Inverse folding.
């Protein structure tokens, strides 16, 4: 699993630390499957495969659920410019990106700001998992299913509360967060700078940072 080095992020709500501009995150270590595929692509003429077959491979990679600690987009997009241009959109559009509050605000923010504009706009599904303080006595019986807020930019109602992989009836606090995030999404434009700002805002709301 590729990890971003913890980096300072833009000012985070609720903290008194000043924002610090840092150098680029350390190059992430590759996940074994992604690295192996990238190495294979360098060893033979991957670009010579039929476009349909290449697209099938990209789609299969995109079926994985990526966390903020993953190298996203995967290593296959760094083989050459041609593969990057045709693979990034397909992989990002089918992948689900999962941000986990236990990683901390600096790490999550660093990932959002390190992602390329192309990959950022290509991502359709984002999930904020392991919401803090959402477990009630009743929910403790189902503690293996974390409360989460899922965003699917391709849907008419993109922001939904989920538990596991399914929509759920949210607590009052989660409902309020969903409404606040939905309102922010409604006024954001379809540009990379706006998408980045929106995801940063949604991250802060989801985890009360």
């Amino acid at each position: 699993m590729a990890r971003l080095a913890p980096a300072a992020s833009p000012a985070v709500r609720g903290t008194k630390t000043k924002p610090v501009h840092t150098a680029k995150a350390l190059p992430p270590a590759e996940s074994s499957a992604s690295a192996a595929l990238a190495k294979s692509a360098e060893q033979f003429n991957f670009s010579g495969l039929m476009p349909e077959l290449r697209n099938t491979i990209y789609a299969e990679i995109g079926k994985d659920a990526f966390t903020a600690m993953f190298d996203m987009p995967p290593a296959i997009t760094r083989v050459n410019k041609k593969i990057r241009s045709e693979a990034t959109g397909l992989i990002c559009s089918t992948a689900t990106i999962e941000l986990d509050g236990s990683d901390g605000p600096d790490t999550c923010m660093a990932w959002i700001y390190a992602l390329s504009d192309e990959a950022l706009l290509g991502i359709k599904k984002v999930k904020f998992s392991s919401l803090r303080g959402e477990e009630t006595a009743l929910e403790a019986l189902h503690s293996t299913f974390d409360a989460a807020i899922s965003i699917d930019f391709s849907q008419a109602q993109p922001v939904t509360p989920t538990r596991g992989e399914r929509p759920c009836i949210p607590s009052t606090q989660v409902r309020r967060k969903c409404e606040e995030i939905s309102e922010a999404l409604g006024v954001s434009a379809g540009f990379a700078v706006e998408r980045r700002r929106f995801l940063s805002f949604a991250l802060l709301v989801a985890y009360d940072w």
